[in-house]
Amino acid sequence: MYIQLFYNEGFTPQSGIDTIAIWIKPEIIKRHQSFHEKGNNNEYINLRYKRETAGNLIIRTNYFLEIQAEAINPNRDIYLQILILLQQLTENEVLCIPKDQDNYRLIVFYHTNFNKLFSLDKLDFYFDLNREDINLIGKPNPNYPNTRYSSCNPSILKAYFRDDRLREKRHISYNDIDNIEHPARIEFSLCRENCDYLNSQNLKGTYDSVFLRYLPFLARRWYEHCDEVVEVAFNKINYAHYLRQIIILAVQQTQKYTNLMKSPPKPISYKGARRNEENEDILLRYYNQ
To answer: Could you tell me the pLDDT band of residue 278, with boundaries at 50, 70 and 90?
Structure first.
C-alpha cells in the first residue's frame, strides 16, 4: 500500500487533525492478518484490531484504519483522503472487492455506502504552542505523569509536552526534537462515547472547513474542562489562530452545533442494537457471499 506523507513527525502544522480512526465492518475484510493489536507507533497509517470482552469471553473484534497527522494533507478534502485510503486497502486485497465494482468506481461506491460499511470512530484535533505559553494543572496520571487529562470518561481534553514524548520514543534525534517550533500540545480526543457528532460528512472539505464545523463543539468542551487540564497565556498566543478562536467562543458561551451532522449508527451485523449501533445486515446486496 502506497502511503503519501506530507510531514515528518514532530513537524506537522501548528494546528490540525492528529488522528482519524475508521471502524471497518469485519465481514468486508479479506485479510484479517493485516490488522494488529498494537500496531506500530512509528507508522502513519495503521491497521489495528481491538477485542471487546466480558470477563474471559470475547464479544466482538473491532477493526480500524488509523490515519495520523503526517499522512493528512490539510489543504485537500479530508473525507476524500479517507476514501482514497479505503480504495487502496481494497486494491491491496485487505478489503473484499464489492461485486460489479472496479478500482475506478470504488471511491464513489464507498462514498455512497460509507455508513453501511464503515464508521468514523475517533477524531483528534491538536493545537501546538510554545512551552512557556502553557502550564499543566490538575492531578497527573500515574501512567503518564507528563500529561494532564480532563476528568470525563473517556477524557476529551489533554495537554502535554510533545518533545518529552518524542524523546521517550527514541526514534527521532534529540537535535531534531530540540528544533521543534511549538513543543507544547493541547488535544481534543473525540470518540463515540464523548461526542455525538462523529459523522464522516463532517470531514468534507479542507482542515479549515472541518475545524470551523467543529469549532462550537470544541469551544463548549474547552469551557467545561480547561480549568482541570491546562492554563494558556492567551495574550501571548497570537500565532495560535485556531486555539484562540476556541477560547474566544468558549468565553462567549454562544455555541450552536447547527453545522454538525450527528453520528449515524455503527453498522454491526447479527446483533441486538445498542447505542450508536444497528443490526441490519446488507452485505448480500453488495458482495458475493
So the answer is: low
| Distance of alpha carbon 124 from alpha carbon 225, whole angstroms | 16
Query: Residues near 71 by Cβ (< 8 Å), separated by ≥ 6?
Result: 3, 4, 5, 6, 44, 45
Give the integer Cα–Cα distance in Å for 213 and 125: 12
Q: Quote the CA–CA distance of 46 and 19 in Å, as a whole number.
A: 11
C-alpha to C-alpha distances, 50 to 26, 63, 105, 122, 283, nearest whole angstrom: 12, 7, 30, 14, 22
Alpha-carbon distance 78 to 212, whole Å?
A: 14
CB-based burial, 60-92: b 16+ in 10 Å, e otherwise: eebbbbbbbbbbbebeebbbebbbbbbbbbbee
Distance (Å, rounded) from C-alpha 271 to C-alpha 27?
A: 14
Segment (H or E) for 184: strand 184-191
Residues 210 and 203: their CA atoms lie apart, in Å, by 6
Cβ distance 148 to 138 under 8 Å? yes
Alpha carbon distance 81, 210 (integer Å): 13
Give bridge partners of residue 277 from the DSSP assignment.
Answer: 266
- pTM greater than 0.85: yes
pLDDT digits (tens, 9 = 90+) for 83-106: 999 999 999 999 999 988 877 789
Q: Which secondary structure element, helix H or strand E, spans residue 283, and what is its range?
A: helix 283-286
Give the model's pLDDT for residue 38: 81
The answer to whether 159 touches 227, Cβ cutoff 8 Å, is no
Q: Which helix (H) or strand (E) holds 117?
A: helix 114-117
